[in-house]
Automatic annotation (TrEMBL), chain A:
Residues 286-327 form the WCX domain. PANTHER family: PROTEIN PAFB, PTHR34580. It comes from Cryobacterium lactosi. This is WYL domain-containing protein. Residues 162-225 form the WYL domain. InterPro entries: CBASS_pafABC_assoc_protein, WCX_dom, WYL_dom.
Automatic annotation (TrEMBL), chain B:
Residues 332-343 have a biased composition (Basic and acidic residues). Residues 154-219 form the WYL domain. It comes from Cryobacterium lactosi. Residues 323-343 are annotated as: Disordered. It comes from the Bacteria. Residues 12-134 form the PafC HTH domain. This is WYL domain-containing protein. Transmembrane segments: none annotated.
Length: 343, 343
């Protein structure tokens, strides 16, 4: 015999959420908020008839959000007799939209590939999303084929702006943040409707509609300083599916259009690594490198010190030289003249 | 900004409950350990979930959670033999859909994997992405990852991992020394767009991590690789410190610590708001440090020891000196148009 739920026991969060999902799937016509609070496991124990249930109502609002975040289609139906009234709203989860479509099936090879894809996210919010996706996938009971041995590919999104931007994008919110553009002394506030977040050449970019410029712009996540805040009251239509591809296509076009010519010291680290990435230039030891952002390339090339000599463009020469001089000048001996003498 | 750990835990648990029900429905009688293996969770977690499911249900017509409104299992079978037999179902009988974000995480992971030679079948990947899109509640968020060009070295190493043979290559370390290495390859790892081989180095007689882009003349051999499967898993961190590492103190803005996460900086003196803070790094020699610091111009400064400062200063000075007689060297940075990716 199962223990009856009438006996008092503390109801855990997952039990309350699970009971709410079951109740809302089981109902055809939907349940009102009062129905839910007074009858569903986890709420009913705290419901007081004819009294103020404000904190329980707030709990329900949060639970609703949490459930929707998991991809469960929790619907709100207005009463035909009383449209616009919050009091007679009904809630339900249509089973047809909850269930995985019946014609969807995954092969053992596909399961294996999806497991590898999920494992790519080792940290951050996407790792939690992937983990839950795998749990749902496992419910299908398909065994994975043998994994490809010897691979552990991983992606990171360490920028703190990554998560709030993703959330805002899903909710169709406009965001504001401070953006520090290289060459400018102070960050400037940008107001952007996010359309896609893309990884290009190992760096995360935000593609969005700049509300002040009235046009799409691409931002590097690493240059967003300070928090990403949502702009209250402004909602946009969720972007259509092609935005990510569009953003990547624009970055690719930019990458192809911009080319730097450098020479590398034979046998050096720069020669081994940069020659692999670029194409041979006209002269010996010269390499042509495509790039999307002159400052990021300058950071990288400055790291090679004397192993790299930039021939063009002039902006890149300036940027690399400026970096090298700054590093040289900021690392002069501190106070002890003996160290200078010891050179 | 970051998700509350408690809420995340409840979301994971709810997802597990909703996924476990359809799985149990498809299996007339299944052991707790088999379920734990399939879902990759502990047997305790499975037992807890089964206990909760068996006590859960819908309020029902009486709104009293009567016996027929609840799930049920064969309790004897569960308690005596650790087997699960679901005997009564309520409300749900199918796997839940993915959330837009879950589908997006898997799709972006797949895009990243499509760079690997084994996953070169782009039609198969495209089919899988379409399935994920159809299996999610909302349109997957626009998260995209550009294809990186698969290096042939990946295929060569991968084949050697499978065949259990050694590979050999010339390797230039960050000191600038080139050595011929014979390695038992164990695993290819990547972090964003940097690829690494981890394996047993016969020259050093130790586990080592090699950057693929620092290898030259990679060849697979017929020499069988030694077995290193002694049960000890490879550590998660790519680089391990050694007893003779040198400690270096650096100064940097608090916000920039993330840039050095791979080097495990230990903060020693947090700066006041807006001030620079100090941290310590452990490095095997100063030659890697000089490349790192020169690539982070204006962000990181080495404070001590003096010889480390000197090594960095000399490196940057030698780089800057190459432009000394170059008339372009004095130009100002003012060409905004070349700064491609920023808006």
């Amino acid at each position: 015999m199962s223990p009856t739920p009438e006996q008092p026991h503390p109801v855990t969060v997952e039990e309350r959420l699970f009971s709410l999902v079951l109740a809302l799937i089981a109902t055809q016509i939907g349940l009102t908020k009062t129905d839910i609070l007074s009858t569903v496991q986890g709420y009913r124990q705290r419901f007081r008839v004819g009294a103020d249930n404000a904190s329980l109502e707030r709990q329900f609002e949060r639970d609703k959000d949490d459930i929707r975040e998991l991809g469960i289609p929790l619907e709100t139906i207005e009463s035909p007799d009383d449209p616009g009234s919050n009091h007679h709203l009904r809630y339900r989860i249509p089973k047809g939209l909850y269930d995985l479509p019946a014609d969807i099936a995954f092969s053992p090879d596909e399961i294996m590939l999806l497991k590898l894809a999920a494992a790519v996210w080792r940290e951050g919010s996407l790792s939690a999303e992937s983990r839950r996706a795998l749990t749902k996938l496992n419910s299908l009971g398909i065994d994975s084929s043998d994994p490809v041995i010897g691979y552990a590919p991983s992606l990171r999104a360490r920028e703190p702006s990554f998560e709030p931007l993703g959330k805002a994008m899903d909710r169709g919110q406009v965001v504001a943040f401070l953006y520090l553009k290289p060459g400018e002394s102070a960050p400037r506030r940008r107001v952007v409707a996010p359309l896609a977040v893309v990884l290009h050449e190992g760096r995360w970019h935000l593609y969005g509609a700049d509300q002040d410029a009235g046009a799409t712009r691409t931002f590097l996540l690493s240059r967003i300083v300070g928090p990403v805040v949502t702009v209250p009251g402004v909602l946009i239509q969720r972007a259509d599916d092609g935005q990510g591809d569009r953003a990547l296509a624009e970055l690719d076009a930019l990458w192809r259009a911009q080319v730097a010519l450098i020479t590398v010291e034979p046998g050096s680290d720069a020669a081994v690594r940069l020659s692999k990435r670029g194409e041979p230039g006209g002269a010996a030891e010269s390499v042509e490198l495509h790039y999307t952002d002159v400052n990021i390339l300058a950071d990288e090339l400055a790291g090679y010190g004397p192993e790299v000599y930039v021939l063009s463009p002039a902006t890149l020469i300036d940027a690399v030289l400026d970096r090298l001089r700054r590093v040289r000048d900021s690392h002069q001996p501190l106070t002890n003249p003996d160290e200078e003498a010891a050179r | 900004m970051t998700a509350k750990p408690a809420a995340l835990g409840a979301s994971d648990k709810l997802t597990f409950l909703l996924s476990l029900v359809p799985f149990l429905m498809d299996h007339d009688r299944v052991s707790v350990t088999a379920v734990a293996d399939h879902f990759g969770v502990s047997p305790e977690r499975v037992r807890d979930a089964v206990n909760l499911i068996a006590m859960s249900g819908v309020p029902g017509e009486t709104r009293q959670y009567l016996h027929g409104d609840l799930f049920d299992i064969q309790w004897d079978e569960f308690e005596a033999n650790d087997n699960i037999v679901l005997t009564h179902l309520v409300a749900i009988d199918d796997s839940p859909r993915f959330s837009a974000r879950e589908a997006a995480a898997l799709i972006a992971g797949l895009q990243y994997l499509s760079a690997l030679p084994e996953n070169g079948d782009r039609d198969a990947i495209a089919t899988l992405m379409a399935k994920l899109t159809r299996s999610s509640t909302g349109a997957p968020s626009q998260l995209a990852v550009s294809r990186t060009d698969a290096d042939v070295t990946i295929s060569v190493i991968q084949a050697a991992v499978r065949a259990g043979t050694q590979v050999e290559f010339d390797y230039l370390n960050s000191r600038g020394t080139a050595e011929h290495r014979c390695v038992d390859p164990l695993r290819i790892e990547s972090v964003d767009n940097a690829w690494y081989l981890r394996g047993w180095c016969h020259l050093r007689e130790a586990m080592r991590t090699f950057r693929l882009d620092r290898m030259s003349d990679l060849r697979s051999t017929d020499v069988p690789a030694d077995s290193h499967d002694d049960g000890a898993p490879l550590p998660d961190t790519l680089f391990e410190g050694s007893a003779d590492d040198l400690t270096v103190t650096i100064e940097l803005p608090e916000a920039a610590l993330g840039l050095l996460a791979d080097y495990g900086p230990v903060p020693v003196a947090p700066g006041a708001a807006g001030q620079h803070s100090r941290a310590q790094l452990r490095v095997s020699h100063f030659h890697g440090l000089k490349r790192l610091v020169a690539g982070l111009a204006g962000v990181v400064t080495v404070v001590d020891p003096g010889p480390a400062r000197q090594t960095v200063a000399d490196w940057a000075a030698a780089g800057a000196a190459r432009y000394d007689n170059d008339p372009a060297g004095g130009a100002r940075i003012d060409d905004d148009r070349a700064d491609g990716t920023s808006a």
